[in-house]
Each structure stands twice: as C-alpha cells, then as structure tokens.
Amino acid sequence: MCIMAKHDTVPIIVDCGLEGDAPRKQDHFFYPVMRPHWLEVSWQPPQNVSFAIIFTSKHAVTAFQQSIFTKTKQNKSWQNCISFGAVGATTAQSIQQQLAALVAHTNATILLPSHSNGLTPLLSLMQATLQPDVQFFIFTSAIGKSADTVTAYCKHHNRNIAVEPVYTLENILESNATPFLTKLFAQPRPSQQHVLFYCRSGQILKQVVHNLLQFFNLEYPTQLPSFIYFFPWEQSAQQALSELNLIDRTTS
Questions:
Q1: Pairing of the two strands 228-232 and 81-86
Q2: Any idea where the Tetrapyrrole biosynthesis uroporphyrinogen III synthase domain is (predicted)?
C-alpha cells in the first residue's frame, strides 16, 4: 500500500471497521465506527435438496451461528449441505472456527476464490464446481450490496440463489467516536505526513467522513484538511469516494 507518488512520507494508517475488529497490522490505529446487530431469523435448512451456504463476512458467520445454527443444529436436513462458500480467507477461517461442528457433521467443503476476494468471484467458482441443482443460500448484511450482486449474477446464470440477511450495522455514537479522533490528531507528525483512513466498504467510508466533518466542524467533504486521505478497498467504498467528490484523496 502506498500514497500517490507525490507524497514521500510514510502515512499514519487508520484501519476503520466494526466494533470488535482489530487493526490489520500492529503499527496501525483502529477506529471502530459501527457495530453489528444480529437479526431474528426463522430460516431452516431445506429438506430433500442439496444446498450450499455462502457467507459474505465473518460477521455473517457469527450471526448465522447465533441466530440460526444454535436453534437448528438437530435438524436432519443439515446432511444435505454439501458446501460452504467464503468471500475471503478471513471469512473461511471464521467458518472453520465458529461452525466447526457443522463442518465436521456435513463433511462439506469450504470454497473461496483464489485470485480475487468478493461475492461475484465466489459465485463463479461455486457455479463451476457444484451441480446445477444445488441451491445457494447467501447469509449477509441487511444493508449491503449482496442482493444487487445476486440479481446481476442471476441475469446471466441459471442458478437458484436466495439472499438471507442475518445482521445489520448500527452507527457508534459520535460521543464515543470523538475521543479517538482527538487522540489521533493530537499525535505529533511532520507537516508532510498524511493520515490514511483504510475503509473496506462504502458504508464504513461514509460514516468515517461524516465523523470527520463533525469533528472539524465542516460542511462539505472537500473541506477536510489536506493531510487526510482514504484507501477504499471494496468497489462500494470506491463508489462512495466518488459520490463524496474525494477521488483526489485516494491512494494508488
């Protein structure tokens, strides 16, 4: 990861995410701006049909384990589960750790894309790997882009895919967010050093920008101090950066 060539000083890196997450590296700051909230779900494993379960995040795995599997673990239809899908390595690790009993019981494989993380590459992999009559169930956030991704995918592929929201995200109160920003910007730094906010999703990025505007008492994102930059990871974060007119505050 690097700032655009015109900036030579190593930036202060702030990993932004959900409460309970951790920074990607020890020398990074971590800024929690939202927290997951599990939804009440009545989903049951289908009878007399082979199916695969797909998770779009580690939080989806946790929500599934707490809201669904704990209530249905005795259901004999779990024997029809032939595969688990994970959008990335972290999600796959969560499946192995939190659903170890289910994985062992079903003897199902865990599939994850090898070249590019994300739901679309995962669906393509599972489409190519599993039989056409296998039903797909995607467990995800209620406010993410999964439903749109599935709709676009299904237009070009003959596959039965259901999207099951199992959690949503709540903003952390600004009163709890302000102390972190106060501490962060009190850090001594060279005049040319930038503060880089790493935001995985569009929703996280928008919340970070909102908090920064409140902290600096500004009206528009383009008014943010010139030393503030963003690293958008997912496509939704890149889109959010464009919507906020902050493309010139990104990295390469």
A1: unpaired
A2: 52-172
Contact present, 41 and 71 (Cβ < 8 Å): no
Q: How far apart are the C-alpha atoms of 225 and 100, rounded to whole Å?
A: 47
Tens-digit pLDDT profile for residues 2-14:
334 344 578 899 9
Give the Cα separation of 54 and 83 in Å (integer). Answer: 8
The predicted pLDDT at position 165 comes to: 94
What does the pLDDT read at residue 175? 61
Going by the DSSP 8-state scheme, the letter that residue 143 receives in this structure is: T
Nearest to 109 by CA among 142, 137, 85, 77: 85
Q: Which domains does the chain have, with CATH numbers?
A: 12-19+173-249 (no CATH), 38-170 (3.40.50.10090)
Query: What is the number of H-type helices and E-type strands within the chain?
Result: 9, 9
- Residues of the chain short of pLDDT 50, as ranges, are 1-7
DSSP 82-139: EEEEESSHHHHHHHHHHTHHHHHHHT-EEE--SSS-SHHHHHHHHHHHS-TT-EEEEE
Bridge partners (DSSP) listed for residue 230: 197
Asked if 31 contacts 204 with a C-beta cutoff of 8 angstroms, the reply is no
CB 155 within 8 A of CB 188: no
What is the rounded distance in angstroms from the CA atom of residue 157 to the CA atom of residue 164? 19
The two structure tokens encoding residue 21: 């997450």
Per-residue model confidence as pLDDT tens digits over 150-199: 888 887 887 778 999 999 988 886 666 788 999 999 888 888 889 999 99
